[in-house]
Design goal:
With 489 residues, this protein is mainly alpha-helical. The protein has three domains: 109 residues, 2-Layer Sandwich (Nucleotidyltransferase, domain 5); 122 residues; 136 residues, no CATH class. The protein has 17 helices and seven strands. The strands form two sheets. It has a five-stranded mixed β-sheet. It has a two-stranded antiparallel ribbon with strand order 6-7.
Amino acid sequence: MAREKRKNKQGVSGNKKPLQVRNATAKRRTPQRSGIPVDNAPPPIESLKQVNTNAAGIDIAANVHFVAVPKDRDPENAVRSFGAFTADLGAIADWLDQCRIETIAMESTGVYWIPLFEVLERRGFKVILVEPSQIKKFRRKTDVLDCQWIQTLHTFGLLTGSFRPEDQIIVLRSYMRQREMLIKCAAQHIQHMQKAMEQMNLKLTEVVSDILGATGTAIIDAILAGERNPHQLAKLRNDKCKNDEATIALALQGNWRDEHLFSLQQAMDLYRYYHEKVKEVDGQIEVYLRQFEDKSGGEPLAKPPRAKQRSKTTNEPKFDTRTLMYEILGVDLTSVDGIGAHSALQIVSEIGTNVDAFPSDKHFVSWLSLCPEANKSGGKKQKKGKSPTHRSSNRVAQVFRVCAQTLIQSKCALGAFGRRLRGRDGAASAITAIARKLAIIVYAMIKTGRPYKDIGSEAYNSRFQDKLVKSLRRRAIELGYDLQPTLSV
């Protein structure tokens, strides 16, 4: 009975009105945006002016490349797929030449684009590398549609190519990145050594600042040679070590186990192996740097001030990096506070010996993502306060940030600038601002070839105070007041 009532309530018995089937051919109402008629919508992309009429687009993959050209160049097959072998890359260049293509856009996909990019560049094509964020398409995604979309955007001049230095710098960059990879691998084996000692309850990391310093290396080598007496091991302590022999001996009373000693031995061997490879790379880098043009004009490099004279760290090249950088650039980047010789080498290996690819320092810091991200609509900022910088993995920006961290407590003008911002916006914003200042200084030095001279923290604070007083006096006049200094007693 209850079931029958429920059916009647649902309309099964015929009480509910029958559904009306809408005529499929009926004319639908044209949708409109709020306040904006559809007739006034922006014109389609085809109505824009074509900037690159002889443009092609390539979708890159590991084993196949899809290439799109204008339809009038190959009416039967405007989109073709090619393999990724060297012979296939040559076939791509031949077909593009037959289609009278002059400029090509391709998406930066891993490292798969590099061989094709180099082949096309050698054949005389103008090739631009495009970030994936520029070619997003809100529809179904296929390789054919992707290459056609890239070709369409490039035809109408809607793509911006990524920065790529000249070939001479690309070789140096490859060496430097290989060196960085080897150092990271060596650092992993330091952690393996620490883990092996912790499992034996050897607290060497608690009594020495660096387990691969003079004291730490001597103790680990003695342990691997068979020494187990903690007092004998503690006698290997360097005179500069903070802790005494008794404290070190207590830290070296552990549970000696063969499996952990075996792991310690392998980690030490691998650490030394990677550093031997780093030395080989350093030799290759030194030989290659001496092939660059000397822009110093024969002027000798002045000695750095005493405050900047320091010994090289473990991971820095052992050759005279500072002199080589001065000869290559014609200006000494290490004269800038916070920038060392190795940092200068890292910067040059990424951007090269000139900055002509960037029209101004604003373009340079924008490429580094060290400036506030544009986030405006209707002339107003979308977020309260300052817009955060765009997240980026730019290697040069990372170098500038590391250099900026060393300046917070310094007595230079950049240090005073950073301390002022740190009290107002926090340490992270201050480091970003200092990194931006460093980037602008380096850009100007490479662009003009003029040296940098620091005015000091006192002069900076004095200038900032004068600027603040002028601003307050101008504001007081606008409000109808007369600003007068107080008499000191």
